[in-house]
Amino acid sequence: MILYHGSNVAVEDPKIIQSVKGKDFGSAFYLTPIKEQAERMAIRKKRMTRSAAAIVSAFEFDTKRAKTFRTKTFAEADMDWLEMIIKCRTDSSYRHGYDIVKGKIADDSVGETILYVIEGVMKKEDAIERLKFQKINSQLAFCTEESLSLLKFVSSYEVK
Three-state SS string across the chain, please? Predict the structure, then answer.
């Protein structure tokens, strides 16, 4: 399976990204199976960092070996998914104990709904109901150094 990572640089040797700001599934190296999503992320990263380039790096994901890793899969944006996103986004030191987390990405529009929950403006149940009507893309978070061994760099290209 090919996975994509959008950035402002080519990434041949993935690393766990530590962030002061909480990420959807915590500190991890994030990829998507959706090429267009990675391209949008690369363009966004280029704009945010005022870089010269938007680059997508492609990786072969060893799905057979992945079966031996602790993996959490969220098939949809449900209560468990929402609670993990909230924990990870509000506490950058939170560790969930999984090597790989697969699930929906909390992009800007979804992130707004999650922020309403965090700020106490919206109940979790109402947020889940609201999210049922939004198209939400997918992501995979490789959360441990060991899980990165499942990725083999294939190529990278610049997005214009």
Answer: CEEEEEECCCCCCCCCECCCCCCCCCCEEEEECCHHHHHHHHHHHHHHHCCCCCEEEEEEECHHHHCCCCEEECCCCCHHHHHHHHHHHHCCCCCCCCCEEEEECCCHHHHHHHHHHHCCCCCHHHHHHHHCCCCCCEEEEECCHHHHCCEEEEEEEECC
What pLDDT shows up at residue 108? Answer: 65
Contact 80, 103 (CB under 8 A): no
| Residue 93 main-chain phi, psi, to 5 deg | -95, -5
Determine whether 120 is exposed, middle or buried from the number of CB atoms within 10 Å of its CB (0-12, 13-18, 19+).
exposed
Rounded CA separation 142/30 (Å): 6
Q: What pTM does this model have?
A: 0.90
**What tokens were used for 109?**
């529009």
The 10s digit of each residue's pLDDT in 77-129 is 899 999 999 999 898 888 899 999 999 886 667 888 888 999 999 999 999 99
